[in-house]
Amino acid sequence: MKFLFINGVNLNMTGTREKGVYGTQTLEQINKEIAARFKNDECEFYQSNIEGEICTKIQQADCDGVILNAGAFTHYSYAIRDAIAAINIPVVEVHMSNVHSREEFRRKSVLSEVCKGVICGFGKNSYILAAESFKL
Ligand code: DQA
Fold first, then answer.
1. 95 is catalytic
2. Of 36, 51, 71, 122, which residue has the fewest beta carbons closer than 10 angstroms?
3. Which candidate, 46, 20, 40, places its Cα nearest to that of 127?
4. Whole-angstrom distance, CA of residue 111 vs CA of residue 67
5. Active-site residue (options: 22, 78, 100, 127)
6. How far apart are CA 18 and CA 65, in angstroms?
């Protein structure tokens, strides 16, 4: 299968920011582990802190499934939501942390409604579980 992993705002700081929440591994290290796990699949990794760039990447997606951790954009980006709704490729929303056990504002996602499913709370394994879900 062909997967596109998209990470949004501040996810490039993974490994150095809020280590108690997001762990000590960098995004690059996490992506390497994911690529090794799905070595028989094609994995593309993309990260941007810019909302419009994420929309463009979603619009241009050419794969079997998108795994999207939009970071804080999750909670308010109608632009990313519309980009997901505009394509015919399934998108799984992912969060490393359990957003429901944190601040109130993290409980609201404007993306979930247009996503195939949501996985949160399993750290880097949230990405792996999301990709696995496309194989069920
Ligand atoms: C996050 C959760 C978001 O609320 C937060 O803004 C992030 C990361 C997660 O992976 O747990 O940047 O998406």
1. yes
2. 36
3. 46
4. 12
5. 22
6. 29
Please give the helix or strand (H or E) that residue 37 lies within, else none: helix 27-37
Tokens of 58: 């979603």
Q: Among all chains, which residue has been given the structure tokens 């490393």?
A: 96
Q: Is 72 in contact with 9 (CB distance < 8 Å)?
A: yes
The two structure tokens encoding residue 35:
């690529």
Q: Calculate how far, in angstroms, residue 118's C-alpha sits from the geometric centre of ligand 1.
A: 13
Give one word for 87, left, alpha or beta, with left for phi > 0 and alpha for psi -120 to 50. beta
Which atom belonging to ligand 1 lies closest to the Cα atom of 21?
11
Residue 86 near ligand 1, beta carbon < 6 Å? no
Rounded distance between C-alpha atoms, residue 127 and residue 111, angstroms? 16
d(CA 90, CA 109): 17
* Ligand 1 site-directed mutation target among 21, 96, 109, 119, most atoms within 8 Å of CB: 96
pTM exceeding 0.85 = yes
